[in-house]
Structures are given as C-alpha cells and as structure tokens.
C-alpha cells in the first residue's frame, strides 16, 4: 500500500467535543435493527406513527442504535434532541430526518411527539425504480459529517401530511397494486423533499445540473474508495477534472471543499470503528488506509483535539 502522505493533505478541523460525547456509545450496546423486526406490511417497507414508537412516559431509556435500512423521520410535534452519529440537533417545529443504513442515532423527546417513521430497504428502491440520485443527492442523505434536518414550512405541511397518510393507508390495504402505490408515494416524497431543500442555487439550470452530477459522483467515489484514496488528486483524476476545480465546485454547493469531505469521511469512520469494534489503534489505522499508526493518531488528534484512545475513553465515560 502506498503512502498517502496524510499529514500534508488535511487542514485542522475544530469539532465540538460535547457533541461527540453526548451519548454513551459502548460498541457492545449498539444494537442494529433489521426491517423485518419493524414491519408487518412487507420485509422491505414499514410506516409507523411516531407517537406509537416513542413515548415520554415510557420507562425505557433511549439508546443509540443503528438500522440496516433507510429511514425517514417526519417530526410534526415534539421537543427534545436527535443525535445522528456524533452531532446533536434540537427538535423544534416540523422536521424531516433522512438516515442511511448503518448510521447511529438516538431520539430523546422532552414532550410527546407526533409524526411518522418510514423505513425501506435497498431492494424496495430497486423494485420501485427509484433512481439513485434521489438517495445520493447531498441535500438529503449524508453518511458522514452532518445530517441536519430539513425544516418543513407551514405552507408545505399539508402536502407532507397527505403523503405520509396515503402511505399509511395503502400499507394497510390488501388490494392489488398496493406495493406499487407505496413505492410511488415514497418516490414522490423524495422528489418533494429534494425540491423543498433550502440548499438551492439561482444559477443556470444546466450548469447547476453539471455541478450536482460532479458532486454526486465525488460522493459515490469517496464512499467506495476512502480507504485507499486520501488525496483530492486521486478523485479529481477519476472524475477527469483538476483538483482545484473539484475543491471549488464541491465547496460552492456544500460549503465544504472536497478535501474537507475526505477528512470528514475518515474521521467519522474512525469514530465508528473506535466505538463499535475492539480493534487496536494499529489495526484501525491499517483498516482506514494509513500505513503507520502514528500517522493515523496525528491525523485524528489534529482534527478532533484528542487521540483515538482519549476519544473512546471520553465517549464511553459520558
């Protein structure tokens, strides 16, 4: 394995350690739920009322967990906090959260919630011809860095309410083509949410589509190659653009450069491995593509202010 020269690639990133340690994350306590455990309608789809799934009066303490499926949380009413991976978000007003398989999260409500939880599998997307870009679009699903909620304004509330209620209605039906109807509604929900997303640019539509395509392609490559490729140059070569163009284009849409996304992906994956496995720092460094554990330790501390061991100890003690 070639040396990625990680020390010279990354810039310092200031992280809020309170956000990183806001939940207890002992890897032995992190449960992964399958869709089969959650769905009576289909092994590939489920919709539930939030007031049934979450109750402030429940004696059960909310615990961080993961899913092996996609999940959309539509919070209509309720207050509290939602921790996704290592970032905490305040629950206020109508919000949509989009979670990818494998993401860790924990919902803590201070008041009784109302809303919907929609869950579906990869097979559901394929069988309903839901295009990849509706999932891979940077605006909605983020499997590293931050996954902020999409606020739903009053003017759009009725549209979303109708979509979720129609899903609920069809999922309870035994009539022919019910599954097709549910698939069409999920696709419509994703389209509506992409269009509703506040990260819009008043640019030439053709130019915007080109830059969005580059961003999606970069994200796909990063998710696939983050272990073996740590340099912006590597991704620029695969995308047939210059490193400077890739950095500027990604930053113009997301506010973060391609270099920032690479380091964010590595840091998030490192935290997951630290908390979900018993690997040593040396083993983890190798798993993430670092030839020397010292290089990995320096990279981690430079971006979090803590060594990997300090991060794990602090998180488990909180």
Outline of this structure?
This protein has helices at 17-20, 50-53, 122-127, 133-136, 154-171, 178-196, 205-225, 232-239, 243-254, 258-276, 281-287, 293-304, 308-317, and strands spanning 31-33, 45-49, 65-67, 70-77, 80-84, 87-91, 95-99, 104-109, 114-120, 150-151. The protein has 318 residues and is an alpha+beta fold.
Question: Can you tell me about this structure?
Answer:
The chain is of the alpha+beta class and 318 residues long. The chain has two domains: 38-196, Regulatory protein AraC (Jelly Rolls, Sandwich); 213-317, Arc Repressor Mutant, subunit A. It is 45% helix and 15% strand. The chain has 13 helices and ten strands. The chain has helices at residues 17-20, 50-53, 122-127, 133-136, 154-171, 178-196, 205-225, 232-239, 243-254, 258-276, 281-287, 293-304, 308-317; strands spanning 31-33, 45-49, 65-67, 70-77, 80-84, 87-91, 95-99, 104-109, 114-120, 150-151. A five-stranded mixed β-sheet has the order 1-3-8-5-6, with no helix packed on it. A five-stranded antiparallel β-sheet has the order 2-9-4-7-10. The longest helix has 21 residues, at 205-225. The two termini are 37 Å apart.
CATH class value of the largest domain: Mainly Beta
CATH topology of the largest domain: Jelly Rolls
CATH architecture of the largest domain: Sandwich
What is the rounded Rg?
Answer: 20 Å
Structural class: alpha+beta
H-E order: HEEHEEEEEEEHHEHHHHHHHHH
Helical content class = 40-55%
**Spatial arrangement of strands, main beta sheet:** 1-3-8-5-6
DSSP summary, beta strand count: 10
Note the overall shape.
globular
Distance between the termini: 37 Å
Tell me about the largest β-sheet: 5 strands, mixed
Mean pLDDT: 81
Q: Structurally, how many domains make up the residues?
A: 2
> Superfamily at the CATH H level of the largest domain?
Regulatory protein AraC
Output the number of helix runs. 13
């Amino acid at each position: 394995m070639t040396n990625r020269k990680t020390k010279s690639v990354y810039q310092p990133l200031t992280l809020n350690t309170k956000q990183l340690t806001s939940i207890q994350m002992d890897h032995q306590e992190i449960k992964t739920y399958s869709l089969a455990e959650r769905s009576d309608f289909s092994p590939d789809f489920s919709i539930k009322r939030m007031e049934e799934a979450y109750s402030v009066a429940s004696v059960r303490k909310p615990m961080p967990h993961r899913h092996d499926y996609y999940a959309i949380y539509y919070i209509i009413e309720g207050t509290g906090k939602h921790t996704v991976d290592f970032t905490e978000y305040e629950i206020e007003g109508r919000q949509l959260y989009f979670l990818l398989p494998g993401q860790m999260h924990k919902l803590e409500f201070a008041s009784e919630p109302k809303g919907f939880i929609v869950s579906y599998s990869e097979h559901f997307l394929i069988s309903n011809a839901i295009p990849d870009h509706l999932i891979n679009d940077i605006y909605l699903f983020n499997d590293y860095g931050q996954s902020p909620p999409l606020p739903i304004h009053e003017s759009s509330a009725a549209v979303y309410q109708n979509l979720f209620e129609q899903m609920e209605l069809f999922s309870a039906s035994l009539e022919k083509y019910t599954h097709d109807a549910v698939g069409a509604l999920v696709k419509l929900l994703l389209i509506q949410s992409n269009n509703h997303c506040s990260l819009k640019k008043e640019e030439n539509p053709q130019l915007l589509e080109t830059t969005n395509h580059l961003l999606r392609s970069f994200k796909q490559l990063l998710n696939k190659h983050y272990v073996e490729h740590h340099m912006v140059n590597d991704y620029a070569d695969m995308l047939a653009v210059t490193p400077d163009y890739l950095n500027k284009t990604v930053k113009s849409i997301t506010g973060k450069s391609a270099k920032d996304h690479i380091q964010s992906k590595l840091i998030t994956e490192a935290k997951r491995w630290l908390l979900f496995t018993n690997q040593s720092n040396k083993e983890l460094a190798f798993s993430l593509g670092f030839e020397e554990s010292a290089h990995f330790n320096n990279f981690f501390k430079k971006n979090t202010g803590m060594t990997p061991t300090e991060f794990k100890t602090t998180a488990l003690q909180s």
